[in-house]
Amino acid sequence: MNKDSNVYTIIYASVMVVLVALLLAFTSESLRPMQAKNEAVDKMRQILTSVNVESTNANAEELYNQLIVDAFLVNSNGDKVDGNAFDTELVNELRKPVAERSYPVFVANIDGSMKYILSLRGAGLWGPLWGFISLDDDKETIYGASFGHEGETPGLGAEIDKPAFAHEFTGKKIFNAEGQYTSVAVVKPGQVAQGRDYVDGISGGTITSQGVDAMLYSSLEAYEPFLTNE
Questions:
Q1: pLDDT tens digits for 147-198?
Q2: CA 96 to CA 75: how far, in whole Å?
Q3: Which of 21, 138, 172, 187 counts the highest number of beta carbons within 10 A?
C-alpha cells in the first residue's frame, strides 16, 4: 500500500485511535479497584473526623473497623430498612421520592459512649457540599462534624472543611427545650439566631455558609423521625 496515499493515512489513523482507546480502557479498568479503595478510605476518614478521631490513609480502615460498631439505613419514617449504609450515597437517595429514600446511620463507640453519625448533602456557591455530623447518645447534642466541598473559593467558602469551623458545632443542640427540631443555624459573624443554637459562618463566604445552614437543616430534618423514635 502506498504510504503517501490518503487511504493509508486514514487506515493508520483509525488503527491508532482504536489502539489508544483500548489502552485507555484497559488502564481505567485496571485502576478502578484502586480508585474505589481510595474513595472508601476517604469516606472512612470523613466519618472518623465527625467523631473527632484523626486518621491517615494507612490506619483509617483499622480505626473505622474498631470504632464503628454498627451501620444501617433508615427510611423517612425512621424505621430500619435493608441495605448497605456505607455504600449508600445520600446524593442518589435525594433524587428519589421521599417515601423511597434510605438514609445511612453509623454508630461509633467512643470511650464507651454511643455516637450516631448522620450523612449530610447540600449545595454551596460553586458546587455540592457534603459531610457527616455525629450526635451524642441523647440524639440531640452534636459531638462532632466534618464537611467537604467540590469547588468553594480558597480562603473563603473553602474554609468549611477546616477543623476550626467544624469544632464550632460541638455541644450545639438540634432540638430546642420544647423538643422541637431546630437544626443549628450558621449566621454571619456577630449575628444571632433567636430560639436556635448557632455558629458563626465563614467571613467572606456568605453563600457557602448559607449552603451549610440549608444542608444541615434539610439533611438532619430527614433523620428527625429516627432521632425521636423511642
A1: 999 989 999 999 999 999 999 999 999 999 999 999 999 999 989 899 999 9
A2: 12
A3: 172
What are 80's three cell numbers?
430500619
Query: Strands 128-135 and 142-149: what pairing?
Result: antiparallel
From CA 33, how far away is CA 42, in angstroms rounded? 14
Distances in Å between the Cα of 92 and the Cα atoms of 68, 82, 95, 103, 104 are 23, 16, 6, 10, 12
Q: Which three cell numbers stand for residue 32?
A: 478502578
CB 179 within 8 A of CB 127: no
- Measured CA to CA, the distance from residue 122 to residue 91 in angstroms comes to 9
Q: Considering only CA atoms, give the Rg of the chain.
A: 23
User: Which residue stretches of the chain have pLDDT < 50?
Assistant: none
pLDDT of residue 9: 75
Task: Select from 164, 167, 158, 150 the least CA-distant residue to 50.
Answer: 167
